[in-house]
Amino acid sequence: MLIQNNTRQVKDVFRSFLVKNADYAGKEEIPCIITSNLLPKKVISFSNAISSKDFNSWIHFYEDDWRFEKLWNNPQKYLSIIKRFKGIISPDYSLYYDMPLMYQGWNTYRGKALGYWLQENGVEIIPNVRWGDERTFELSTLGVEKNKTIAVGTHGCIKTIEGKQMFIRGFDYVVQALKPKNIIVYGRMPDKIFCLAKMYGINLIQFDSEFALSHKKEVM
Q: What predicted TM-score, i.e. pTM, was given to this entire model?
């Protein structure tokens, strides 16, 4: 997309059109998303949704970033495909503990910006909440409505002791900050990690990862 800059047109490399008319939260100006009142019964990854006809599913982005980078590069191309499905969980760009904070913020922004744009184009959205290290706990909640539904992904995040401890700390922060009614969990849902949510009586809806499902089929 081209944008006007004084007397000449320049390429919109920052995808500013995604957040036209958006409201922002925090000094980082993360786009705000209005959470859908619907809940998913089935989920499918973005990369599989492109060729799927299982339109009763919600699209998720709990997969390698390169698999959905094309959505960021050309969102208009995939809008008609996405609109066939029930809705989406907003994009889950990676946040690693050793990432510079600025990059963690950029990936948080990108996920919310795409979610906002899709919402503006008639797509039901459940916000994904992803944190990296302690500096991103508050950042992860920006632009997300309280007392609604959120989604989190555990796949690949709780393999190590360090990873599990960081996930618990971030998750407990999110639960207390947002007080969600429902939490969509993609991946394993160990009691020790989700005990605070259960204590608060939050409705937890768990979906096995595609990796776990494929291994179940192999065993069978």
A: 0.90
What is the C-alpha separation between 102 and 176, in angstroms, rounded? 25
Q: Shortest CA distance to 184 belongs to which of 54, 86, 88?
A: 88
Q: Which fold has domain 24-219?
A: TIM Barrel (3.20.20)
Do the beta carbons of residue 182 and residue 175 sit within 8 Å?
Answer: no
Q: How many CB atoms lie within 10 A of CB 142?
A: 22
* Category of 92 on φ-ψ map: left (φ > 0), alpha (ψ -120 to 50) or beta: beta
Q: What is the mean pLDDT of the chain?
A: 91
208: its two tokens = 């096995």
Q: Report the C-alpha dihedral over residues 70, 74, 76, 79, rounded to 10 degrees.
A: 10
Instruction: Report CA Rg, the chain.
Output: 17
- Using alpha carbons only, what angle is made at residue 19 by residues 6 and 89, rounded to the nearest 5 degrees? 155
